[in-house]
């Protein structure tokens, strides 16, 4: 499978997402990072899009109720799509426009992207040989992959598209390693501040540059009208926001405070969280590995063991997973972000499908354990309910806008 072709729009979907000022809800889709584990949210998002489409489409053998027709796209329903690391790749693929300003790709193509390109982006290392001091130091000091293929692929797909061109608003966190400051690329600012209007392909690369996997990226954006330019020295967006929902909410509140007319406070109270519909899709957790890092064990290990131990990077794992609250559904190779064998990718897709069948659960904030919620049904049933709400919200906006 290859991620080619464009999405044709039907009469029902040619109208872009109406501004939030005409709405009842503000809608946000948030996609976590996780390397090749992006296949899990890709699977779930493709299912959600199928529920917004037509009964003629059967996805994973689950019959979809008819809502908005086969040309409905995820971006038709969300005011903001936010993504960190691999979530930023998914965000950009979903929000990139074609020549008619319609979404360039449908959600099922996200799966094709990983299947086609994962093994090239994360090539398998040759087995054999003893673990020498040189290999150990190399694993600690340098990134595992060059990242050139990922950059070339995204440039081919995204062409000269910039953040301001997206069909709905995107929010993509990154981290400037030189300034030690978070950087949040977003459509709102990109439309008004040229030095923040980066190429989509560039921000995809910058936000996926996990220090242990890829090299940091240098980026310069120039405003040719004013002559101003800004340099960025960027690494993985997970350092800024492991859960990009936080970044999306901060951008949204900033726009309200700036009195962006799309967020008319007379119609919408940004402090009332009943006015938000947020769907946050993760890539699974690493709790099995985290349980190895007990306090007594840490006290017995030196600096090198904190940096690299048995193929793991304990201190980096602790920081990068500190804000993760995903259900513990991964084990073995599926825990890893960079094992892109066909077998592992199929396992990740299967996990995504199995998650849809699981009962809705909420985290117990005292224990961190997810517990099933009585009466809520399965995750696929919950997504079907969300699809209906999203469809009704979009129709309401269009009626309000027309009147």
TrEMBL record:
<dbReference type="Pfam" id="PF01734">
    <property type="entry name" value="Patatin"/>
</dbReference>
<keyword id="KW-0611">Plant defense</keyword>
<dbReference type="InterPro" id="IPR002641">
    <property type="entry name" value="PNPLA_dom"/>
</dbReference>
<feature type="active site" description="Nucleophile">
    <location>
        <position position="85"/>
    </location>
</feature>
<comment type="function">
    <text>Possesses non-specific lipolytic acyl hydrolase (LAH) activity. Hydrolyzes phospholipids as well as galactolipids. May play a role in disease resistance.</text>
</comment>
<comment type="similarity">
    <text>Belongs to the patatin family.</text>
</comment>
<keyword id="KW-0378">Hydrolase</keyword>
<comment type="function">
    <text>Lipolytic acyl hydrolase (LAH).</text>
</comment>
<protein>
    <recommendedName>
        <fullName>Patatin</fullName>
        <ecNumber>3.1.1.-</ecNumber>
    </recommendedName>
</protein>
<feature type="domain" description="PNPLA">
    <location>
        <begin position="29"/>
        <end position="249"/>
    </location>
</feature>
<dbReference type="GO" id="GO:0004620">
    <property type="term" value="F:phospholipase activity"/>
</dbReference>
<feature type="region of interest" description="Disordered">
    <location>
        <begin position="1"/>
        <end position="22"/>
    </location>
</feature>
<keyword id="KW-0442">Lipid degradation</keyword>
<feature type="active site" description="Proton acceptor">
    <location>
        <position position="236"/>
    </location>
</feature>
<keyword id="KW-0443">Lipid metabolism</keyword>
<dbReference type="GO" id="GO:0016042">
    <property type="term" value="P:lipid catabolic process"/>
</dbReference>
<dbReference type="InterPro" id="IPR016035">
    <property type="entry name" value="Acyl_Trfase/lysoPLipase"/>
</dbReference>
<feature type="short sequence motif" description="GXSXG">
    <location>
        <begin position="83"/>
        <end position="87"/>
    </location>
</feature>
<feature type="short sequence motif" description="GXGXXG">
    <location>
        <begin position="33"/>
        <end position="38"/>
    </location>
</feature>
<dbReference type="GO" id="GO:0047372">
    <property type="term" value="F:monoacylglycerol lipase activity"/>
</dbReference>
<dbReference type="GO" id="GO:0006952">
    <property type="term" value="P:defense response"/>
</dbReference>
